[in-house]
Structures are given as C-alpha cells and as structure tokens.
Amino acid sequence: MTCTADRAVAAGQPRRDDRPERSGAAPSRGGPGRRAGLALLTVVLAVLLGAAGCGGKGGSSPSAGPTLAATDGADGVQVFAVTGLPSMKFSASELVAKPGRIRVDFSVAAGSAPHNFVVPTIPGANTKIVSAGDKQSVTFTVTKPGDYQVVCTLHPNMTATLKIT
Ligand SMILES: [Cu+2]
Fold first, then answer.
1. In a domain? residue 62
2. What's the pTM value of the predicted model, to 2 decimals?
3. Same domain for 80 and 155?
C-alpha cells in the first residue's frame, strides 16, 4: 500500500529536476503543449514501471510463490485454499500449519493444464487429477513437524512445501 505512494513521490522527483534543462532546448520547435505531453508521458511510464516493480517485490526469487498460513476451519481442521495455475505452479510455494488435521481445497484455474496436489510421504494426502475450472478437497492428518514436499505428479517441477511447525 505504501509502495504505490512511495513510488509516486519518487516518480515526481526526476521530472522536476528535468525541467530547467529541457526549457533551454525546447522553445524553438516544441512549445509548451509538446513539453506538457512529454512530461505526462514520463509520469505515465514512471507509474507503470513503479507498479511493475511493486508487483515483483513479493517473493525472494522470481519463481517463488507466496507463503500461505492455514486458516481455522470447523472442528479444528486447518484449511488451505490452493490453486493449480496455467504457469505450472501452485498458487503458494509454502503452506504453513501445525500438526493435526489439514484440509486442502485444491482448484485448477480456468485455461490451465490439469493438475493434482500430492504429498507423497503422507498417506491419503492426494487429490485426483483435477481439470481446469474444477476443484477437489482432501483431508489428512500430520503428526510430526517437518517439511513435506508437495508435487503435481503430472508436472514434476511443480512443487511446494508443506511446513508443519
Ligand atoms: Cu500439474
């Protein structure tokens, strides 16, 4: 949220410094109209670049998705909503929960290849292959803290980590 505001202030800075320099060269051909247009274009570009920069700030590496904390469901079950994406990734790269019952509400985005959600080392922690626009939930129990790898068996590079703390 503060990111956009900070960027806007930063974008205003170079434009102000720029002005005296430009006014020396421009009057003969440009005139005030063209200069205003250039200034506006500069601002628009700065805002677009700023917005792109903000978006990229999320993860530590460009390919890493966000960390997801479980939400509390009924009867103490810990719930994750995870989406399989057209980019062959899970919507979260890390799912954080405590030992106990866990439910994963797994859906596959429209326009995506089919995916599944499988934790190979936890019996029963797997969905079937889910088609684009469909969803399936799976509930399982984990007792031991640790990092459990999650994978889509159709796309072996499509992985995430279930972190039990
Ligand atoms: Cu997949």
1. no
2. 0.62
3. yes
